[in-house]
Amino acid sequence: MTEPSEHLFRHEAGRIVSALTRIFGVHNLALAEDVVQDAFCRALEVWKFRGVPESPAAWLMTTAKNRALDVLRRERTARTFAPELGRWIESEWTLAPRVEELFAAPAIRDDLLRMMFSCCHPRLREEAQVALILNILCGFSVDEVGNAFVSSHAAIEKRISRAKKVLAASKKLFDVTAAAEFSARLPAVQRALYLLFNEGYHGASTESAVRGELCQEAMRLATLLLEHPLGATPATHALAALMCLDAARLPARVDAAGHLNSLLEQDRSQWDQELVVKGLRLLDLSATGSALTEYHVEAAIASIHARALSVEDTDWEIIVSLYDTLMAIRPSPVIALNRAIAIGERSGPQYGLEAIRAITNLNASPGIPSTSPRSASLSLRARSTKTRANTSWPPSRSPAIPWSAIFSNSA
Amino acid sequence: MSEYVFLYRGGETGRSPERIQQSMQKWMAWFKELGQNGHIKDQGQPLERTGKVVKGHQKTVTDGPFAEAKDIVGGYTLIEARDLEQAVELSKGCPILEVEGGVEVRPVMKLNM
After folding, report:
1. Residue A4 and residue B21: Cβ atoms within 8 Å?
2. Mutating which of B20, B23, B49, B76 best tests the A interface, going by the most A Cβ atoms within 10 A?
3. Smallest Cα distance from A212 to chain B, Å
4. What is the C-alpha to C-alpha distance for residues B15 and A135, in angstroms, rounded to an integer?
5. How many Cβ atoms sit within 10 Å of the Cβ of residue A330?
6. Residues A222-265: pLDDT tens digits?
7. A144 interfacial to chain B (CB closer than 8 Å)
């Protein structure tokens, strides 16, 4: 008997809800969700007795489509649906073929992307966008979103239901074929995926499985963005590179006792080399165009770490320069803190501590630092006992960042 | 060996896609184990939760459901077990118990007794 692939139901939930919402209209999102729930319960009942069908994803989609047809027939006078259905809905002769058409492969290809952009509505705060993406596109229940954010059921439910109201009031789903609007909203989508990834990578959940899943979801959605001609910009490539290079370190992040290992303590032989290679290749592809985004710089930092054999082998000089650049593009206490750690590595712990002390308003940012200032100080102190040979400090001037070396990783 | 029918009642509504998938995998693992140990005579069928009831001399036909959601039979399996005690023991592994559902264990009457 075949086993369905991991997270099949969750991933299909996102795809099917997105397709149904296009057909029902965004104001009928809840109805679309009910239909999916219904189709999935049906799959459970049938599959547990008869086994998983040959193509489970297609089975789920077809079941949802049939349910959707039932709903359209039953409610065609009581509700208004999406304009796509138009007058086709009025007669049984035209309804079924039209629904077939709307569910055909080319029609549903962009559904996830359309929903992804819709979830990043400018009237929604960033955390609401991320919660909505997790709930609608990734098939996380309210409890599962709450679990990921270490937030109460009530708080997340409120956040998600408010966000859905905004979405419903937006009247129609985002039009992914409108190039100008696409490009205008793309940064918000990139940012939401970046935050989703960070929630997994640095987030508060103590379950490493949950965090790993968030990272995987962000990477899955970033891949979707890369597959779209308008979505595959240099910044998206840089974002995807960053995700791969950071995710490569995930296996080494938690020790046997479940404690987080900082980058400095990790067993680098556990890093996922396949992801490193993929990340470096994506970083190469990001090196076009005129804009240097924060994703470029963060990915560049991650690439320096990924290529260093050890902490000592790391080019901290370049990393400090890159953090300087990052502070100029998007300053935050977390980045300032990481910069201080890099300074400590480059020049010695006392300089790192000085840099930490120089950081003001550490708590002003909503971002959750993976390393608190205190533990960063401690880690610097702990390392201060090591002798550091050939340290020349202060250097007359930071050398220019060798961008060409960073963005040409084919070797 | 004697035959028993497991009737599955209630369970499974309003759960997340991930939980539904996990539940299905548990069911499949449970059936597989029962089968490997020679306890499955007929794995049975899932049943729709709606239908009709026909009653009495008048042959009155009414719509289902005929009971509260938690009591509706959602499927059945024909089991082989040594005795009722063993059949009950086997039913305790059923994943429906984790979602507020129940298993009704009913001995099939024997003809030769």
Report:
1. yes
2. B20
3. 15
4. 13
5. 12
6. 999 999 999 999 999 999 999 999 999 988 887 777 777 888 88
7. yes
> What's the pLDDT tens digit per position in B22-50?
999 999 999 999 999 999 999 999 998 88
My answer on whether omega of the bond before A394 falls inside 30° of 0, hence cis, is: yes
Would you call B18 and A139 a contact, using CB atoms and an 8 Å cutoff?
yes
Give the span between the Cα atoms of A11 and B23, in whole angstroms.
Answer: 16
- How far apart CA A65 and CA A59 sit, in angstroms, is 10
> Torsion-angle region of residue A192: left (phi > 0), alpha (psi -120 to 50) or beta?
alpha
pLDDT of residue A136 exceeding 50? yes
- Other C-beta atoms lying within 10 Å of the C-beta of residue B53: 11
**A41/B25 Cβ within 8 A:** no
How far is the C-alpha of A190 from the C-alpha of A243, rounded, in Å? 12
Please work out, in degrees rounded to the nearest 5, the angle formed at the alpha carbon of residue B27 by the alpha carbons of B22 and B29: 95
Cβ(A247)–Cβ(A208) under 8 Å? no
Q: Give A103-150 as a 3 state SS string.
A: CCHHHHCCHHHHHHHHHCCCCCCHHHHHHHHHHHHCCCCHHHHHHHHC
Residue A373 pLDDT exceeds 80: no
Quote the tokens at residue A366. 């909503």
- Establish whether the linkage from the previous residue to B65 is cis, with ω within 30° of 0: yes
CB A345 within 8 A of CB A311: yes
State the Cα–Cα distance between residues A389 and A370, nearest whole angstrom.
29
> B-chain residues within 8 Å CB-CB of A9?
17-18, 20-21
Neighbour count for residue A292 (Cβ, 10 Å): 17
- Name the band, by pLDDT with cuts 50, 70 and 90, for residue A2: low
pLDDT greater than 50 at residue A280? yes
Residue-wise pLDDT for A81-111, tens only, equals: 877 777 777 777 888 888 888 888 878 889 9
Residues contacting residue A204 through CB under 8 Å, at least 6 positions apart: A149, A150, A368
**Do residues A280 and A245 make contact, with C-beta atoms less than 8 angstroms apart?**
yes
What backbone phi and psi angles, to 5 degrees, belong to B105? Answer: -105, 115
Mean pLDDT computed over A161-176: 92
The rounded distance, in Å, linking the Cα atoms of A48 and B94 is 12
Q: Is pLDDT above 60 for A380?
A: no
At A104 the pLDDT is 86
